[in-house]
Amino acid sequence: MSYPPDHQRIHTLSRRERLKKNWDKYGLVYIFLIPILIHFAIFQLFPILFSFVLTFTNWPVIGEPKFVGLKNWLGLFNDPLAWKALWNTIMFSFYYIIPTMALGLILALLINSGKLGTGFFKGLFFLPVVTSFVVISGIWSWLFKGTSDGFINTLLNYLGIGPQLFLSDSSQALIVLAGLSIFKVCGSTMIYYYAGLQSVPEELYEAARIDGASSWKTFWKITFPLLLPIHFYVAIITTIGSFQIFDSAFLLTSGGPSHSTTTIVYYLYQEGFTSLRLGYASVLAYVLFFIIFFISLIQKKYMGKEVSYK
């Protein structure tokens, strides 16, 4: 459809006026967004696109990348160590997610009780979060030393239980690493739940007390359901954290024994920065991304619901 020249001129002027008004209103916001968008494009968008291109190449860093098509993607299906690393990561998630959420909620309930000394314990429980992971890993390694003079083995000896190998036992090492991660992050999980508990209206608890509800019933009928948004958020961040576990396996076990603590991120690191197979490492990175993405969608469907306090 063609417009008369006068109509086109009016239409152009009105569009320019809208743009000018928009700039006058949001110009400062656009100015501040420009460096943020540039930073995002350089350090986020470009690496994502470049890593996707790498999945179709064989690039050992030294030399020119060689196009190999779908070889790296198909190689994933024939790599037993990749599947073992993925299974180890899934098992680590089972050992880590629920205990972290449960312990964080229990600690939040303790400090929300308002009893004397709760402020001190709040700082004490949060201390591992702000402590260097290297330091905590060293302490954990000393606690779970797989000899008779190890601290945990000494305690087990008093209970009549023989010394355990812990980090040197393929059936125990992953659980010990999960315990380390739980100890490290349960303080931050506690803070999330504590903030959620503070937002629950007190009149709901008063009504429950008037109706004669017990503390246990009040928790399951009021507190726990109203914390659903916090459950969802904590579940998301703990799931992402569990699938990205690397530092504890790197510092304590180096993926052993017998690859029992080789997680998908640790295997990605080995392939990319030890074996210099950046193309295959990029494939592992995208596999990790899709796994986390789909798990997050499932969590969003079943846990990401609105909660009303009325």
Tell me what the structure shows.
By secondary structure, the protein is mainly α. It folds into 2 domains: 5-54, no CATH class; 71-303, MetI-like fold (Orthogonal Bundle). 74% of the residues lie in helices and 1% in strands. It contains 13 helices and 2 strands, in the order αββαααααααααααα. The chain has a two-stranded antiparallel sheet with strand order 1-2. α2 crosses α13 (278-303) and α3 crosses α12 (264-274). The chain is flat and about 70 Å long. The model has no long low-confidence stretch (mean pLDDT 88).
Quick summary:
This protein is an all-alpha fold. It has helices at 5-54, 71-77, 80-111, 118-130, 133-143, 151-158, 173-199, 202-210, 215-226, 228-243, 247-253, 264-274, 278-303, and strands spanning 57-58, 66-67. The chain contains 13 helices and 2 strands, in the order αββαααααααααααα.
Q: Give the H and E element order.
A: HEEHHHHHHHHHHHH
CATH class of the largest domain: Mainly Alpha
Please provide the count of β strands.
2
Rg (CA only): 27 Å
Beta-strand proportion: under 5%
The share of residues in helices is over 70%
Beginning-to-end CA distance, first to last residue: 54 Å
Major sheet: arrangement of strands = 1-2
Silhouette:
flat
Our count of domains comes out at 2
Largest sheet: 2 strands, antiparallel
Task: Quote the CATH topology of the largest domain.
Answer: MetI-like fold
Indicate the CATH architecture of the largest domain: Orthogonal Bundle
Structural class: mainly alpha
Uncertain spans, ≥5 residues at pLDDT below 50?
none
Count helical runs. Answer: 13
CATH homologous superfamily designation of the largest domain? MetI-like
Mean pLDDT: 88
